[in-house]
User: What shape does this take?
Amino acid sequence: SQELEQSPQSLIVQEGKNLTINCTSSKTLYGLYWYKQKYGEGLIFLMMLQKGGEEKSHEKITAKLDEKKQQSSLHITASQPSHAGIYLCGAHPSGAQKLVFGQGTRLTINP
Amino acid sequence: DTAVSQTPKYLVTQMGNDKSIKCEQNLGHDTMYWYKQDSKKFLKIMFSYNNKELIINETVPNRFSPKSPDKAHLNLHINSLELGDSAVYFCASSQAGPGAEAFFGQGTRLTVV
Assistant: This one.
């Protein structure tokens, strides 16, 4: 079965600093999703990557999928308090109508 | 307009009770899901329905019974609740087929005492 490992599991950064969260898959990724979750709320879709080497950006958040399609990184530039939350990477195991998720990365932004 | 809505948002109940969580989506999606997020924030698939038909059941105890009266609704009924059932349950929907973005509800926090 496909497993996703996120690192770090927890991250505390000073406001204004850059940060990176990684997601590594045990198998080739056929679509990698990044979601953000705030406490007491549902998951908010951030980005989806499908092609090896693909990179997408939304405001100050950039996500990349490596050429071998087994690792993705999420980079936040000049972090703000609004970026705080739990970031989850998810992927479809080949041919399956479901998402499997990493264990999440809890991001705290200190003012 | 809420795309995927779950009710209730919070549910506190005693062990042994039977409870239901309702989910509705107004996105016209063919596929709906139930996920469980445990205390360590690990999110795992429980069930997946496509056009009211069960297509995924991830070794969930049979005390959990999903019901899809139509493709816009997927309810979760839980019998004989146990302490270990305490978690946040998320409903989601997507178009059919891998590669489709899943939209999530806000979650139902179930506490069994």
Summary: Chain A has one domain: 4-110. Residues 4-110 of chain A form a domain with the Immunoglobulin-like fold (CATH 2.60.40.10). The longest strand of chain A covers residues 19-25. The CA atoms of residues 62 and 106 of chain A lie 17 Å apart.
